[in-house]
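Subject: sequence -> structure tokens, single chain

Hey, anyone have a minute? Need the predicted structure for the following. Not urgent.
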Amino acid sequence: MNIRLYTENLEREYLSPYAVKSCESLGRLRDEEPCEIRTCFQRDRDRIIHSKAFRRLMHKTQAFISPEGDHYRTRLTHTLEVSQIARTISRALRLNEDLTEAIALGHDLGHTPFGHLGEEDLNDVVPGGFRHNEQSVRVVEKIEKNGRGLNLCIEVIDGILNHRGAGSPCTLEGKVVQLSDKIAYINHDIDDAVRAGILSEDDLPVDCVELLGDTFKKRINCLITNVIENSMDKNDIIMDSEIKSSMYRLRAFMFKNVYNSSKLAEERKHYRVFLSKIYKYYMANFDEMPVEFLHMYKQGEPKELVVADYIAGMTDRFAQRLYKELKI
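Reply:
Had a minute. Here:
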């Protein structure tokens, strides 16, 4: 019995007419024999989970660098929370949950150490800039498996590339992940900021609390429910304008009072140029790069991108240790 074909038939019968059916995927850059058990999107999800880049996410910053405590989010736990929210929405809307999960699990594979602070740092020195969504695509196309990449489906790569706010995913599953990413980080970063003593729940904007809820659980539930109710049987993923506006006001509040706050000024000052200094060191001493990255350069990849690939793939602790060893 071919389980994949059975699953594809179930998708045709059950999924929304707006969902991407596995059997209708645009395919991969390199053709492969189909699996008898898993659909193409299930295979992509598994490839991402088994990748080295995915494992490294557990030692990469989400919001706070080297927090004292075991309960703060990392880039990995953020990814899992995005996946959980996105799957809940997709299941309710009868979208392709496997495609949604693959995009969600892969969306931050190219993120730098030290979170967005590290991304801003590399963006300042890499010619053409550095954006973690584009780097995530490089990870799955050019870096993983010794340069062969994971050969993911076009829909998964599109969702990963376009998960940032300015992106426009070509599938509803990609749009679900794009919105779920915001729902996740706004709310879990509030939770972590309260845990760190940077905020209290009473500091949050009163109008946002009244509309969305006065606890982490209530806010998450409100936002997910609103997306589902407003997107049901529609060829789009949308929120009520008032709820969406309130969510973005919370986001702006977090940028002002947490991410760019004076309370984290010392942390930002200390780590602000960590990665750019490592980047400049390897641009001047390129022959000291690891062999696999030298090989990428010999295969025609630009030196600037190869150095950025190496640095973006580092964990926080590896970058900290390397910084000391190089005596920058």
